[in-house]
Structure formats: C-alpha cells, structure tokens
Fold these 2 entries.
Entry 1:
Amino acid sequence: MRLAEEDLDAREKALAAVAREAGELARRLFADPANFSTKMKGPQDFITAADSAVERAIVERLSSEFPGDAFLGEEGGASGSGSRLWVIDPIDGTANFAHGIPHFCVSIALLAGSELALGAIAAPMYGELYLARRGRGASLNGRKMSVVAHADIRQSVIELGWSSRLPARDYTAMLERVLATGATFMRAGSGALGLAYVADGRTHGYCERHINSWDALAGLLLVREAGGWTNDFLAGDGLTKGNPVIACTPGLREALVAATGVGEPNPQLTRRMS
Ligand code: IPD
C-alpha cells in the first residue's frame, strides 16, 4: 500500500536524523578497540557488540516515532506487522569494523507495501550521509548523485561482493569472467557502501551472487534514483532469504549480466540457497 506523501515526509525526515545518529554511535564505538570483540555466526561472518547496540538505538527511535511500523533487522530479526517495514543493517562491513578497518556503514531502508520508498546509508568514518526517496533522486551530504554516464567496460571498476554463504568456485568463476571483459574489480567488504559508490559514480557496478535484504535495499534505491539499473532484488523470497544482486550504470547492463550470470533467472543458484 502506498504511503501518503505527508507520512513519507515525516519518515524521510526521521530517517535522515536516525541514520546520522546511528552512524555517530557506531563511530564512537569504533573508537574503543574493546568493541571489536566478536562472536562468529559462521566462517568470516562476524557479529560485534556494536551491531546489537546500534540496531537497538535505531529501532527504539523509529518505533517511538512510528509505533505502527514493523522492523526487520540483521541482528534482531522481525518485529511488528503491517505495510510499513524498516529494514536495518546496523553495521554493514562488520568484518571490517571487527578488524579496525573504517570501511563500514549503517544502512536503513523503508518498504511501503512492496515499494522501496526510502533509503539511507551513513558512513561515519568518512562523514558521509547518502539518502534516497523514490521518485525524488539520491544525494550525498545534500549533493545530487548520478551514476557514471560512460559505458566502456574496459574503463570500469566493478565491485564483486563475496561471502562464505556460497562455494568459492562461484566467486572465482564470476571474477574470471568479469576480468575477461576488460573491467577491473574490487572487494571492500560492505555491500551497502559498494552500492552507494555505484550511485555516486565512483565505481561502475556492484554484483554479488547472494546478499541479504538489510545489506542491499537502501543501496539499491540509491542506485535507481541516481539513474542506474538494478535487478529485481525483492523477487521471490528476497526480503527474508536474500537474493543475487546486480547494480550498474545502464550502459554496462548487458555486458555485466552476461559476465556475472546475475540479473537473469538462475535456477541453479535459487536451488542452492533454498
Ligand atoms: C556483509 C557485507 C559484505 C557482503 C556480505 C554481507 P555484514 O554484511 O555487506 O560486503 O559481501 O554478503 O553479508 O555482515 O557486514 O553486515
């Protein structure tokens, strides 16, 4: 169900404030190495005390302002019900955070029914706040963002996300095919920031064969509102189980879909993740 413009206005304002505050909290926690201590959810899959603290702060603030809204958080899972759902990654790039690397962010998106309505990413160590509202564009610290205009794959930087959720061979095969196009690649360890960088024209594409909705939704809205192309990430069980993700400047769509195999129906991958 579509939200009335004034309801969306109120949530957009609150989102900008809460993302900034949550980023500040993450930055303060990062200043104390005691907060790097982790538990492991799986190989190379970290959780720090900061993840739970930041998520709690976001949910408390948004639920007191919008008591009827529901939440889906990386750490706290789902709470509440209804057509307005906040999807939260309190710290994306948790492994970086845990190793003392400042490349991490807070990512928050709002779904109104099935519509991705708002997105915010705060990268506190860089002093960056990325915002997007459906139909109204995307900005970085108040400056309008646009994806890169050129479509020369041989000049392009493509970020290829990796996690231990899929076999290594899936990643290395995709990497070889992307390099064969003439592009170069990077992996910086935050899917949300990887997407934000595409939106700001710093890189030309982001692709990962499985990512969770809390890592991806805010960034996907940034890319779309900055004029980029993305796959239909929320297809099937994307919200609750994750999906493959691809986002790029429109002129690279064909080459990247061909090289990555993402962006087309991929029954093999769907079977493996279910
Ligand atoms: C991870 C990061 C990473 C991506 C993984 C995510 P987390 O999220 O976004 O870049 O490749 O798929 O799980 O654990 O740092 O919130």
Entry 2:
Amino acid sequence: MVAVTRTPLTAGNWKMNLDHLQALALVQKLHWTLKDAKHEDGSVEVAIFPPFTDLRTVQTLIDADKIPFALGAQDLSAHTSGAYTGEVSGAFLAKLDCRYVIIGHSERREYHNETDEVVAAKVQAALTHGLVPVVCVGETAADLEEFGASAVPVGQLRIALAGVPADADIVVAYEPVWAIGSGQAATPEQAQDVCATLRTVVAEVVGEDAAARTRILYGGSVKSSNIAGFMREPDVDGALVGGASLVADEFAAIIRYQKHVGV
Ligand code: PGA
C-alpha cells in the first residue's frame, strides 16, 4: 500500500443533544479553549456533527469567527428532493457548508431500521452532493461472541462502499456497538486489528490509493484518558466521539491528544 500521511480527524457526534443556542455556546467555548491552549489548528482536523436544526446557526458562527472546524450532519436522505416528509437532502446540507455526513450509525441501523442497502444508497447520495460520507460500521456484543470482531463490520463496509468511485473522498468509522456509550471502549489493539482489516476492504472495493488516503476512525467511549492509545495505532486515524464531544474541556483535550504524555 502506498505510504501517505493522513491528517488525523477528530469528529464530535452530538447525537440528539443541544438546541441551536446551546450549540453556539459549546462551539464558542471549544474554540476559546483550543485558542487558550495554543492548539495548532493544522495538526488535527476537527469536525462537529450537531443536530440538523443547529446547522445554520453553527455555520454562521464558524464563518463569522473563522473557526477552523468542519461541519457535518448526522444523517441525510437517500433522495435528492421530493415527497419524502421529514427527510433532509444532501443538497441542503451542502448549501450549509457541511463537508461531512455520518451514515449508518448503529443507532440509525438499530432504531430506524437502516439496512446495509439503505446505507449504501445514502453513501451514493452523499457523494452526489459533494459531501464526504463518514461510514459507520461495527459489531454488537452478540456478533462479537458469534463471529469475532471483524466479520460484521467487514460485511457492512463491503456493501456500503460498492460502486464508490476510486477517487472518492470517504471516511470510515469503526464503532463496536458494545463500546458506544457504555464507558467500555475497545482496546487500542482491538481497534487496530479491525481498522487494518477495514483498510484492506477499502483497497479491495474502492482501490489501493483510496485505502492509503482514507481516514479510518475508532469510536465508542473515547475520552481524553484513552485517546492517545488509539492514536498510537498505525491504522487508527482519528476518533468519532459521542458523549465526550458535548463537554468543551474534554473534547478539546481529545483534540489535543498529541500533547498527552507518551504519544
Ligand atoms: P460515545 O459515542 O463516544 O458516547 O460512546 C460514540 C458514537 O456513537 O459515535
């Protein structure tokens, strides 16, 4: 595989938390915290994924204050426009300067019946609208017991990436379902094993160059106290952070993992 440098990506998935006013306060506090700490902006890419109703407000703030955070949405419709009540088109997200969109989060797969085929259609929709899909895959505790760690995420990723062009910009997030919101993260070794396997899937399905440049994130109970261990692994290129992204000091400490002892 071609050696390339991948800029680490720290992504904050707010889930269904914070209205647009609370969003303003958190983004401002996060920005100030990083500035106070003299954080070097280019060292890590920061992306935040607020609820849909916050996006316009956060976009305006980022723009006005020149805040170096990328904006993303937590989902999108597989369709571009039309009679799909309650859905949000990738075209609308692109107009709000969203760069990223999370697709196939386990909560959407589980509570909103998103199949691998729906996930694949949403990946295509994201690419159509110039958005970078953050494709989430991961096994449940039962899957882990029955099939081991890689089998289910590998199967999910193969379907999600089918038909993705070789030059597409994508991000993959490995999120073991048993680790999400549980306080029990995978070990760095477990994350590395699965992320390395997922990289071979990107190579097979999309191409070697894509595999070399694609960021593969780990997600599931990431905190400032465990991020450095994940980031030391060669195939873990960042983190998708849920709960800890809602606390400015904690998320800033995750972003600044390079300053943690021992990295
Ligand atoms: P968590 O969530 O960090 O709260 O475990 C991660 C996610 O669901 O993306």
